[in-house]
Amino acid sequence: MILEDFISIDKVGLYCKYGNFYLDPKEPVKDAIISHAHGDHAIGGHANVYCTQATSLFMKHRYRKNAGERFHIKSYQESFSINTVSITFIPAGHMLGSAMILMEYGGVKYLYTGDYKLQPDATCEQIEFLKADVLITETTFADSSTQHPDAEVEILKLNTTQNNIMLGAYVLGKSQRLIYLINKYCPQRRILVHFSMMPFLKIYEELGINVGKYEIYDRKVMKANPTNMVYLVPPMVYNSYSRAVNVVRVFATGWKHLQKGNDIQLLISDHADWNDILKMIEEIQPQEVWTNHGDGRELKSHFTYKLKVKSLN
Ligand SMILES: [Zn+2]
Ligand SMILES: [Zn+2]
User: What whole-number distance in Å separates Cα of residue 23 and Cα of residue 44?
Assistant: First the structure.
């Protein structure tokens, strides 16, 4: 029987009272299961951190001594228990090391997706589907007007100009994916990366991901070469160069409102869009869908009389 209170939201985050642990908590707790290393899911300071190896390396780089007291590194498909809840990590396809968290208790399977995507991405593990009774899904882009174009089609837009490009992107996950895509689809481009991106790129390479060629940014190189360069920068740096001249400004995101003022609209997202969420539900075949992280109202009305959809937030 599905326990309606198996997962609830309090001010710290998603809490499982049957196992006394949190999923991606926003404040330090005793037992934290971390789906992936993005800052809004993985904070430092927990006593026990359960996560994949890649997630632990990213967290330790970002938070140093404050990353957490004890890391319990788990492989995908390796089951372990916290109190009497059995836990298994399943690839989520969102970024390297990202995991969906399968929780089994009282003969019922609850699957928390964290962030996930269905689009292929050579820089991370491909998402894996399984059957579960309850799907706890993020709804970042759960409105039917959001459909992410293929990343391959989007990246070819960079070939419409020869001018140097300043490309803004999140440091972790998105920028590695972009470097891979540019190497593959825009091979004439030389890729310069902001120094803050280098440590994460190193971790990707240590974990066996080959993103292709790139160099650390050097302003002399950029100045000496007026064409065919792309300079990859984190969002803060991108925004601080809003008046940069002699470069084409591009920011890679699935959010349309963040595309205003950019010279090329590069709609590359690492989240599921509307159709992906529907496909996910089709694959998982849940009896109930619980939503968080976004707005689940359109999903709820879409499934009226067909499937129970409830919002956790
Ligand atoms: Zn994320
Ligand atoms: Zn997120």
Answer: 14
